[in-house]
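Sat 14:20. Reprocessing the chain from the morning session after the first attempt stalled halfway. Input below, unchanged.
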Amino acid sequence: MFAVLRRLTGIAALLLLAISSRAQDNASLLSGGAGAMGNIPARLTEGSAGTTEAFVSDVFFGRGVRGPYLLSWNQVATGSETVLVDGLRLSRDTDYALEYATGAVTFAQPVKSSSICRVRYSYDAASAKQNQASLSIPVTFDLLSSQASQYKLSLNYRQKDVRGGSPGSLVAMLGGKSRLSGNTEVSSSFLATPKAAGDDTTGNRTAFRIGTNTQGGNYQFITSFAQAGDAFGAAKDNGLEAGKQVMNMALAYRPSESVAFQSSVNRSADVEGEGKGQSALVATQNVVMTFKKAPKVAVTHQTVDSDAPGGAGRRQISDRLQLDHNFGQSASATLIGENVAVSEGGRTTGTTSTGLNVASRLAPTIGLQGSYRHSKSQAGSEDNGDITVDMAPARNVQVQSRFARKTGPSFSQTTTGLQVSAETKPGVKVEGNYLRDDATQAVAETRKLGVSVSTDPRWNLSAALGQQQNPGAIFWTREARAQAKPVSLFDVGGGYKVRDFRGGGRSIESFQTAVGLVPDRRWRIAARLDRNPEDGKGNIAFARSQGLDLQSDWGSWQMSGGLSRSYEDASDRLTRIVQAGLGIRLFGPGKLYTEYKWSRMRDQSMWDSYSYSLGYAYQLGDLSLSLSGSLSRQELDGTPMVDKTEKKAEARLGVRF
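Finished this time. Tokens:
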């Protein structure tokens, strides 16, 4: 009980520090490591105005590992940091290591999940960039702790990645480890992710794994078995694969400090989801030799057998030799030789390749990276070369140039590129790009010049002008984007882009707008208007759409609703969606809710879809109960489709996450 109270007290202290941070700098509250980094730095700005040097303190929990833990900012000033764990100051290069360029901290010993870390440091506000990440809050309850066994219940919430990567997740884990003898340890864990609000997908949301670890003298033997459901959303964050069953055995043997042997067998099989029945068996043998003042040598032999239901098996055998050598502090080189043979459907093909990778820091402001690869197969020979030069001629200027060439039996391709970026003053950045792709029968060129201005956290502006020249076509692009939050109750954003085609073709205009309004704390209204929206790959959806969403909270009553309309020019298709929801709190922590949704899609025919849902959720302490039912049906040109009518009922009893 006291351990739980101490843990909750630590969480409260961290949240108070985070709230203090928000009040001081009125900027983003939480930032930290990417994805797997997962620390929760609460940033406390301590600097003063009138100088480009800013001082900051990051506060975060340990995760039971050495790291790395990513700080809020990169380009940390050398030697400016002070690192404390539970109030104890640590020594650099003895207790921790810090990569000043990236802001990554790695500790000499794993940091307990109950420990609070604080890192004070300074950075150059004119050139440093903020590291973006998702919020991750772990809570751990010790169930059994003895000299031979430790078992615990862990709850971990990970907020949706701010960069649009992995979705948010809440994971519960029950597990631990026991020592059977002096050198053998058994570990096991059971994991589950609850169904998120608004998620109508079905599937297995649980996972489990069990393993043994035997270590003695100069050898180590590891076995493991794991399986994750096809709907287990936190598989990647926990080292699992959704819908797969994985078995692994590995033996490592080190007869001396210079020589190490490793052999492993891994079998994975799709037991749930679309790929059910597929399997792969991977057997790997590896020898690594490391000698002073000599290249590091690694020899690897690997066999991969793949099977699929009703299909022919596939076997791939590869042999690889790799030499790594460092030339002082500023240069390194890697030489690779590899032979791969693939047998499938009674036919065998092979590829032999050699490659060289080099990296060098020619000067403090000039870096060079290069690679070359030659491969030979039944289809002929292929050569690939790439050289990249990074330069920083001034503190706020970055220049990168690249040259690549690829040749084969029937093709040749050369790519050259140049990118220049400069921050003329804090918050104002100018960037230019040039790319030329010279293929065997076609030449394509791209030029782009852009500027972004964000001198005030309440607004951001950006604009760009570009030209793209392809065989038989040239078009110009002009685009502008803006985001603003002038007051706390109102925010607005939008973008506009036009493509002018020269030599034929019509101009295409795209724009997106979004407005959010909160008249008071009980209402939230959001509206959007899009035309020919463009995705992240540049693909255009030729459509016009509008939408309006409403949310309201009046004490025991909660209401939600939405209207949307989309028209596709090419197919002359019109889609309308109307949805409404109502909830009311009953009997203390209980809640009764209902939702209605209607959608109509009209082109050559008219499709109508209706869905109704009703449910009740009750939560008392750590226990929760939910009952729900739904009915959905479809109509085609006003005629009900019997085979498209579906009824569902569900009851759940579980632990509150």
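The two ends are 19 Å apart (CA to CA).
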